[in-house]
């Protein structure tokens, strides 16, 4: 008998708030978190970015240090680590999970970790090992007191979805009973300049699936999901992780496949594993970065998988592209959609402009949302798809 | 179902082993660039894109090139072969190079061809492109080689028939310190042995740990 | 022009990591993309960097790239018409 895997708690930290609830409230109020920043400190400016409020981050983090009576001062932790700790701490609140459980695994998703530490201004500030991605995971392990060696997944922009897929597989395999999956990435000169060299950044807030879309907007944030093979007490409105799949375009290391065939393969495999018919899918949270090529490819994949009528959106108009956090933050928003039966509009979209006929959500509406698909694609030609089902 | 290691490659300490046979040895390594180019030339590989790769991708590419010599393409469908690789430093070697290119604002020319390699999973992308592999693929990070984690990850994929074979291993480089190990693990229902001169090993914790210590 | 063409060939070989290609392998009038050198989208972006770094020419609209980077000769002609340094 296949074990059921339940999502029992979650958190989002972003420009729109520090809890899943705060983020949902902001999104329902029609807010978006991408702002044009005029910052002389940055080489490229003005630039649309979705930034986490530093003052708020620091004061909330200090509050957590005070409650947990942690022996390290706030300045021991990097910006990313503060966000991750805050996110996991919030997700753990309100559920009873034994921290030192040998059946508990921490899985971290990040593309660049503490990459800002390579800058001159951070020279000597932190132990040089903190630039390693596993060091970030160890900071979390030490802070919370987890027993097991964390798993770290660093697989470009699919890292978040891939971490959820991996966690659900490990739980179903029986290796662990509970998994805390957390992911984050920060805004840095490193990443901004890189995407700029790819001419991938839009001069204004990104417009996913729009006829005038011209690039992505970068964002920073964290997403956390806690999964368990134990059924939660609440019973109602619980979301299960069904099946997931990861494929590769085998085409180009930075450009997406022109056909969308391999993302479609991932979607089909995920649906097959979940026992879900395409016609039964109520909502797709697409990767939707708002580059000309990604959105076109993704729409082809969605059509190929016979999901052309299924309401689809991109959450990137709310938080920008948060890289290693994206798959997690957007999955949390997807689960919010399911719990509240709401379809969130594609922020940034005015007029749909893709060649395939797909059903892009333009206005936030109430609608039954029982079965969903999350997709993500990334540099290196990787594609992921994950299926969620309400119990 | 018994999973078998049917082929493996180890690169480290200036040596290159293919299925336990030493095929290349540089007693004194001056730079990784020279080492890997010499290996590329000796093995008579013809793949111009090799020169565009960063060190991590060159290392992973050559390791897989040696691993998959024996006509792997004919044995599996494009989506039936998985790749799971891991390392400790992610793309730090290239990250440091890239950061250097944006350090000086008066000479600020970020290079897209360097930036694209500042993600560890690109090495997987390069291997997939070379062979047309479209299946499961993941890049993991761990402080040290974690045989238990790799065993669990790959076993789950093969036991649940998400793939019928998996290339798995470790590809690590920072400056001129480098080490790579890749093993081809196949579900037991293979028709012909892949390498007549290599006796397949059962895919186990001790077997993978031994592969990292073959030198 | 010939001097610039030779200089450009060397720079393109270096910037794009075309290690096994010699100066004689590159026909200044042959298309750079599609066939021949088999350049791709990242190479196109690198050529934009090359123009700025070595010649001080900033290409505002990447779509102009198709015409400018058609061949070594079209690149040389564009540089002669627009360069501000080097």
Structural overview:
The complex is a heterotrimer of chains A (391), B (215) and C (86). By secondary structure, chain A is α/β, with parallel strands linked by helices. Chain A is built from ten helices and 16 strands. Chain A folds into two domains: 5-228, Peroxisomal Thiolase, Chain A, domain 1, CATH 3.40.47.10; 239-390, Thiolase/Chalcone synthase (Peroxisomal Thiolase, Chain A, domain 1, 3-Layer(aba) Sandwich). In chain A, strand 15 and strand 16 form a beta hairpin. The longest helix of chain A is centred in the first third of the chain and has 15 residues, at 54-68. The radius of gyration of chain A is 19 Å and the shape is globular. The model of chain A has no long low-confidence stretch (mean pLDDT 96). Chain B is α+β, with helices and mostly antiparallel strands. Chain B has one domain: Peroxisomal Thiolase, Chain A, domain 1 (3-Layer(aba) Sandwich), CATH 3.40.47. In chain B, 32% of the residues lie in helices and 24% in strands. Chain B has seven helices and eight strands. In chain B, helix 1 runs parallel beside helix 2 (55-67) and helix 2 (55-67) runs parallel beside helix 5 (122-131). The longest helix of chain B is centred in the N-terminal third of the chain and has 13 residues, at 55-67. In chain B, 51% of the residues are buried. The mean pLDDT of chain B is 93. The two termini of chain C are 15 Å apart. Chain C has a single domain (2-82), classed as Non-ribosomal Peptide Synthetase Peptidyl Carrier Protein, Chain A (Orthogonal Bundle). Chain C is globular, with a radius of gyration of 12 Å. Chain C is mostly helical and 86 residues long. Chain C has helices at residues 2-15, 41-55, 65-68, 72-82. The model of chain C has no long low-confidence stretch (mean pLDDT 89). Chains in contact: A-B, A-C, B-C. Chains A and B meet through helix 4, strand 5, helix 5, helix 6 and strand 9 of A and helix 3, helix 5, strand 5 and helix 6 of B.
Summary, kept brief:
Chain A has helices at residues 20-28, 54-68, 79-92, 133-144, 159-173, 189-197, 261-274, 292-304, 316-319, 326-340, and strands at residues 5-13, 35-37, 47-50, 104-109, 151-153, 178-185, 218-219, 221-228, 239-248, 283-286, 311-314, 342-343, 359-360, 365-366, 371-378, 382-390.
């Amino acid at each position: 008998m296949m074990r059921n895997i339940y999502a029992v708690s979650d958190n989002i930290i972003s420009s729109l708030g520090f809890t899943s609830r705060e983020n949902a409230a902001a999104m329902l109020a029609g807010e978006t978190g991408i702002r044009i920043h005029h910052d002389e400190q940055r080489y490229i400016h003005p630039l649309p970015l979705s930034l986490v409020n530093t003052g708020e981050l620091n004061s909330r983090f200090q509050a957590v240090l005070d409650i947990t009576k942690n022996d390290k001062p706030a300045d021991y932790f990097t910006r990313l680590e503060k966000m991750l700790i805050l996110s996991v701490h919030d997700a753990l609140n309100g559920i009873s999970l034994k921290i030192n459980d040998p059946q508990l695994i921490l899985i971290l998703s990040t593309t660049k970790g503490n990459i800002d530490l390579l800058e001159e201004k951070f020279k000597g500030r932190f132990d040089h090992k903190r630039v390693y991605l596993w060091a970030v995971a160890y900071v979390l392990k030490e802070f919370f007191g987890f027993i097991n060696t964390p798993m770290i997944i660093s697989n470009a922009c699919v890292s978040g979805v891939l971490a959820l897929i991996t966690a659900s597989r490990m739980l179903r395999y029986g290796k662990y009973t509970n998994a805390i999956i957390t992911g984050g990435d920060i805004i840095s000169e490193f990443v901004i300049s890189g995407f700029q060299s790819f001419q991938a950044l839009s001069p204004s807030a990104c417009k996913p699936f729009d006829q005038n879309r011209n690039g992505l907007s970068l964002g920073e944030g964290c997403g956390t999901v806690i999964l368990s093979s134990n059924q939660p007490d609440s019973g109602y409105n619980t979301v299960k992780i069904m099946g997931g799949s990861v494929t590769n375009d085998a085409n180009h290391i930075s450009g997406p496949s022109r056909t969308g065939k391999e993302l479609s393969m991932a979607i089909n495999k995920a649906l097959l594993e979940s026992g879900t018919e395409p016609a039964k899918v109520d909502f797709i949270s697409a990767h939707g970065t708002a580059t000309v090529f990604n959105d076109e490819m993704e729409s082809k994949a969605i059509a190929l998988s016979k999901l052309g009528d299924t309401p689809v959106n991109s959450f990137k108009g709310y938080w920008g592209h948060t890289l290693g956090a994206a798959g997690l933050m957007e999955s949390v928003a997807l689960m919010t959609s399911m719990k509240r039966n709401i379809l969130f509009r594609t922020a940034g979209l005015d007029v749909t402009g893709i060649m395939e006929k797909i059903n892009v959500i333009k206005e936030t509406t109430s609608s039954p949302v029982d079965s969903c698909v999350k997709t993500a694609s990334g540099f290196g030609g990787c594609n992921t798809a994950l299926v969620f089902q309400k119990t | 179902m018994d999973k078998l290691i049917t082929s493996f490659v180890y690169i480290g300490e200036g040596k290159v082993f293919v299925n336990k046979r030493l095929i290349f040895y540089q007693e004194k390594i001056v730079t990784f660039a020279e080492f890997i180019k010499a290996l590329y030339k000796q093995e008579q590989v013809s793949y111009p894109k090799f020169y565009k790769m960063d060190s991590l991708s060159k290392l992973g590419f050559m390791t897989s090139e040696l691993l998959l010599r024996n006509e792997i393409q004919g044995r599996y469908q494009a989506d039936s072969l998985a790749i799971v690789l891991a390392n400790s430093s992610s793309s730090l070697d290239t990250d440091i190079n890239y950061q250097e290119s944006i350090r000086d604002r008066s000479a600020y020319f970020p290079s897209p061809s360097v930036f694209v390699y500042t993600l560890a999973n690109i090495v997987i992308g390069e291997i997939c492109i070379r062979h047309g592999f479209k299946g499961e693929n993941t890049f993991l990070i761990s402080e040290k080689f974690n045989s238990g984690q790799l065993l669990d990850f790959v076993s789950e994929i093969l036991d649940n028939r998400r793939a019928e074979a998996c290339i798995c291993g470790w590809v690590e480089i920072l400056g001129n310190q480098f080490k790579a190990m890749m093993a081809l693990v196949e579900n037991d229902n293979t028709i012909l042995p892949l390498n007549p001169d290599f006796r397949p090993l059962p895919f186990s914790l001790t077997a993978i740990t031994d592969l990292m210590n073959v030198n | 022009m010939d001097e610039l063409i030779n200089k450009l060939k060397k720079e393109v070989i270096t910037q794009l990591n075309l290690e096994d290609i010699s100066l004689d392998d590159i026909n200044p009038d042959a298309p750079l993309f599609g066939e021949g050198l088999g350049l791709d989208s990242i190479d196109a972006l690198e050529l934009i960097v090359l123009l700025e770094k070595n010649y001080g020419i900033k290409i505002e609209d990447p779509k102009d790239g198709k015409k400018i980077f058609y061949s070594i000769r079209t690149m040389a002609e564009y540089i002669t018409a627009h360069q501000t340094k080097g």
